[in-house]
């Protein structure tokens, strides 16, 4: 089945989609992105993703390409044209096309917008989540504004590749103090030895995860103890449970860190429960 991409105002066949060679995203990684999970053909956690998108654009002083209402229509059309019921939709906004120069174009040029959507096999994903997954740790080597969801992801790509080569699905960055900041494409969580949920606070150099934010509300409603508090690699290895969160991973249990089993090396009850509660919330609130 043919797939379609949205590129600067037009839907084109995915295989024919292209951007200009002097798009500043291609030349300078001068842009931002967002990824929405799609449940039943609808956008999950939509409000949080839009809020983060506008913030990222504002922090980089990139003009908003269109209103939220208009963008919602285009995102939904991308989902419809690609026949996605369960999947992901990707949005990228760059500063636009201009002669290569590090400084911003003067006068400003229109932002460039790309949207793609693809289906995922939820049944297969659930089966994998039920088994748990592994993570590795790598030194934190990213820039100081990881709160902006920029397309400049080379350290993340290298970390992901290192994880794949070691049979893991994710890499956790570890700062100079030995504290886990976040994953290459997810937020990191543990259930510590005292049974308390812990994840890094967003005042640190981490992305303000939308799935993370929704899950904090789910946790509060479930009455579980939680603290936005950093943890060390050693604390993660000695934790009762661990998991990651993100639009792609949702809530995925982690059963080992750097080859060391967490608990007995099986998926724990808290992560399993939170995954089910999050998916229930996301489906009910999707638009």
Automatic annotation (TrEMBL):
**Which catalytic reaction applies to this protein?**
L-valine + 2-oxoglutarate = 3-methyl-2-oxobutanoate + L-glutamate; L-isoleucine + 2-oxoglutarate = (S)-3-methyl-2-oxopentanoate + L-glutamate; L-leucine + 2-oxoglutarate = 4-methyl-2-oxopentanoate + L-glutamate
GO terms (BP aspect): amino acid biosynthetic process; branched-chain amino acid biosynthetic process
Q: Which CDD domains match?
A: D-AAT_like (cd01558)
- Which pathway does this polypeptide act in? Amino-acid biosynthesis; L-valine biosynthesis; L-valine from pyruvate: step 4/4; Amino-acid biosynthesis; L-isoleucine biosynthesis; L-isoleucine from 2-oxobutanoate: step 4/4; Amino-acid biosynthesis; L-leucine biosynthesis; L-leucine from 3-methyl-2-oxobutanoate: step 4/4
Under the heading SUPFAM superfamilies, the entry gives: D-aminoacid aminotransferase-like PLP-dependent enzymes (SSF56752)
Pfam families recorded = Aminotran_4
User: Keywords for this entry?
Assistant: Amino-acid biosynthesis, Aminotransferase, Branched-chain amino acid biosynthesis, Pyridoxal phosphate, Transferase
Q: Which domain of life is it from?
A: Bacteria
* CC per GO annotation: cytosol
Q: Which cofactor does it need?
A: pyridoxal 5'-phosphate
Q: Does the keyword Zinc apply?
A: no
Q: Which Gene3D superfamilies match?
A: 3.30.470.10, D-amino Acid Aminotransferase, subunit A, domain 2
Give the family, as the similarity comment puts it: Belongs to the class-IV pyridoxal-phosphate-dependent aminotransferase family.
Q: What does this protein do?
A: Acts on leucine, isoleucine and valine.
Q: What is this protein called?
A: Probable branched-chain-amino-acid aminotransferase
